[in-house]
Design goal:
This protein is an alpha/beta fold. The protein is about 35% helix and about 20% strand. The chain has eight helices and nine strands. α2 packs parallel to α3 and α7 packs across α8. It is globular, with a radius of gyration of 17 Å.
């Protein structure tokens, strides 16, 4: 028998557009050479313009999906996105705590790209208390970072480094803060560890609005970790992949652009002269 590809289990809400959520995770993981397993945590009604409604799956169903998979197949990484309810957060934390050797990438999606809320304050507290301490790396944007650090519903001008240190003190090993919501001609993404800033990567800011960029980045990190890369290199590789997917994105509807996660399969080769690093 051929050797197994890296296997990644993602917990996420379904997105019928294929732009974000569970479908984005599956596309990204497959594109990066992994076999994706999936646990559906919520159903959504949405299009490329935004989320209309969300219905969480019952926590027992979430647990049953995951336990059956984990008892049957070895998993090389976990990726966690929208969980839909506090009960689901508790259920997922209980499950992944049984696998401390498996790296966990937590994408704390608190709102859609349009701003539709996807997490209550109760859920935010559960993320901080239950999942942050179990996470290998957490991937918030600057607005999510400030909310997770306890600096208001909408985020404020608090120093990002101070917010990062506050979250690292709660137990996660690494924190990748993305700078898409910060001012500047470039997007600056910063990786923090217990020793401070480990790397800072600068990317040309793309002009459009994208659906699923955060899901793509977090899933790409999980894929890179499952493929055996160290965290700092996994973060770099995932950013490169995500920037290319966004730069080659397409608009199939009337709303946001979707990343092209299989850009490499369409005869497009990376050229640093096109604006990437």
């Amino acid at each position: 028998m051929p050797s197994l590809p890296p296997i990644v289990l993602t917990f996420a809400a379904s997105d019928p557009t294929g732009g974000a959520g569970l479908q984005a995770d599956l596309l990204t993981l497959a594109s990066m050479g992994c076999h994706p397993l999936s646990v559906v945590t919520a159903l959504t009604a949405q299009d490329t313009r935004g989320v209309v409604s969300l219905m969480a799956v019952e926590a027992d169903w979430v647990a049953d999906q995951a336990r059956l998979l984990l008892e049957d197949m070895p998993v090389d990484a976990f990726k966690v996105g929208v969980l839909g309810s506090r009960d689901n957060i508790m259920a997922v934390a209980n499950i992944v705590s049984d696998y401390p050797e498996v790296p966990l990438v937590l994408d704390p999606v608190l709102a859609s790209g349009r701003g539709d809320p996807l997490a209550s304050e109760e859920m935010l507290d559960a993320l901080r208390e239950q999942l942050l301490p179990l996470s290998t790396i957490v991937t918030p944007n600057s607005v999510e970072l400030r909310r997770l650090a306890g600096n208001g519903t909408d985020g404020d001008a608090s120093d990002l480094g101070a917010c990062a240190r506050r979250l690292l003190a709660q137990g996660c090993e690494y924190l990748l803060v993305t700078g898409t919501h910060e001012a500047g001609a470039d997007v600056v993404n910063t990786l923090y560890g217990q020793a401070g800033v480990l790397r800072s990567d600068r990317w040309q800011r793309l002009p459009d609005s994208y659906h699923g960029s955060g899901c793509t980045l977090a899933s790409a990190i999980a894929a890179a970790l499952a493929n055996g890369l160290a965290v700092t290199e996994a973060v770099r590789e995932a950013q490169e992949y995500t920037w290319q997917a966004l730069a080659r994105g397409f608009r199939p509807g009337t709303g946001q652009i979707l990343p092209d996660r299989f850009f490499w399969a369409r005869g497009v080769k990376h050229d640093s002269s096109d604006g990437g690093p």
